[in-house]
Design goal:
single chain, about 375 residues, alpha/beta, seven-stranded mixed beta sheet, four-stranded antiparallel beta sheet, 12 helices
Length: about 375
């Protein structure tokens, strides 16, 4: 048998990739599974987005290879969006790089800046892909704690006590996934100062800004952030386009150019029609966010009721697409807890442990579930 690369010894198959096989098997056996685990919006993009894509398919110039940097009008749309929503000025020619989803950007950034043996600061709990990609490129994950008693924000005294001499990148994401902690501009200012002090590339993963959040923020709002920081963003959650794979990375031209060197060797540009749809999405007015959030508020209220029915304590300050909840006293394993619910009540919930050791004792519910299904889940108890 041909042996696999050693780097595969350092990663596991993504949790949802393997767990969903188990869930699909239960469904094939006729079990009435309600999935409340994954943040894949079940709502549709706007009518204008669908029409833009449909029209673009008929464009005779839309079927060839596209620019690695995306259409100029897409980059301008992204720049205008950041100006309108965050007050952040970006040059669409050299400070914005469209991506096939922000997950792609995590790999491209890592390949562009990490050498074997470099250290990477990763939030615990946090998005598992940060660790996987760090391991795949031969760098070393160094976890920093986020805890409820500190509002799921970094402890800067603890950070300063770490050996930071080999740290090249620091990942963060506010609003935070999985907890929904909002963060603040004061926190961003501290993080930018920390990154400048230690010559670290700071990357904020920011796809949840507009879901149930009345104060969207960008790391790039901090003066001087572009010197040391990038921001990833995505249309997946904001505009219900998760499967379309449209994201962006934003920052100063030198850093963006380094990422482009990687990206241009990895793909052949985003499909023209999807780019046209993305332009239409970015031009949606504020009523789009308001209507989406009316739906998510109703879902959150019901989901909190379900969590409390399970004896869990909900993190009420959370925003974004999930409900984060602390398990009842005496429950030792989040994974065992959710498996019992999966097999006894046929409801699939995410254990906090997949996001890191500080996720033990917590579970996460997705709001990508219709109200009647959430109510059905409640009724099963």
């Amino acid at each position: 048998m041909i042996t696999t690369a050693k780097r595969l010894d350092l990663v596991k198959e993504y949790y949802f990739s393997s767990k969903l096989r188990e869930v699909r098997q239960l469904m094939s056996e006729g079990k009435p599974i309600i999935s409340m685990a994954i943040g894949s919006p079940d709502l549709s993009p706007s009518k204008e987005v669908i029409e833009a894509v449909a029209s673009a398919i008929l464009d005779e110039n839309g079927h060839g290879y596209q620019s690695y940097q995306g259409l100029p009008e897409l980059r301008k749309g992204m720049a205008d969006f950041y100006q309108d929503q965050f007050g952040v000025e970006l040059n669409p020619n050299n400070e914005i790089l469209p991506l096939m989803g922000s997950k792609e950007g995590i790999m491209h950034i890592s390949l562009a800046f990490l050498n074997e043996g470099d250290h990477v600061l990763i939030p615990n709990p946090g998005y598992p892909t940060y660790t996987s990609v760090t391991n795949l490129v031969g760098a070393v994950p160094v976890y920093y704690d986020l805890k409820e008693e500190n509002k799921w924000e970094p402890d800067f005294e603890a950070l300063e006590k770490l050996d930071l001499s080999k740290v090249k990148i620091m990942w963060l994401g506010y609003p935070h996934m999985p907890t929904g902690a909002r963060g603040s501009l004061a926190l961003f200012e501290k993080l930018v100062a920390f990154a400048k002090k230690h010559n670290i590339l700071l990357v904020n993963d920011n796809p949840y800004s507009f879901v149930l959040n009345d104060n969207p923020m960008s790391l790039l709002q901090v003066e001087g952030a572009k010197d040391v920081a990038l921001e990833l963003n995505s249309l997946s959650k904001t505009f219900n386009m998760a499967g379309w794979r449209v994201g962006m990375v934003l920052g100063n031209p030198e850093i963006i150019d380094a990422i482009l060197k990687v990206k241009s060797n990895m793909d052949s540009g985003m499909f023209y029609g999807i780019q046209k749809g993305a332009v239409a999405a970015l031009n949606c007015d504020k009523s789009w966010f308001e209507e989406q959030n009316k739906i998510y508020r109703r879902r959150r209220k019901l989901t909190e009721k379900l969590a409390e029915k399970l004896g869990c304590k909900v993190y009420k300050e959370g925003v974004g697409l999930f409900v984060w909840a602390k398990l009842p006293e005496g429950i030792e394993s989040a994974e065992k807890f959710i498996d019992e619910i999966l097999y006894e009540k046929h409801i699939f919930i995410t254990p906090g442990t997949i996001f890191g050791s500080n996720g033990e004792g917590y579970i996460r519910f997705s709001l990508c579930v219709k109200e009647e299904k959430v109510q059905e889940a409640i009724d099963r108890f």
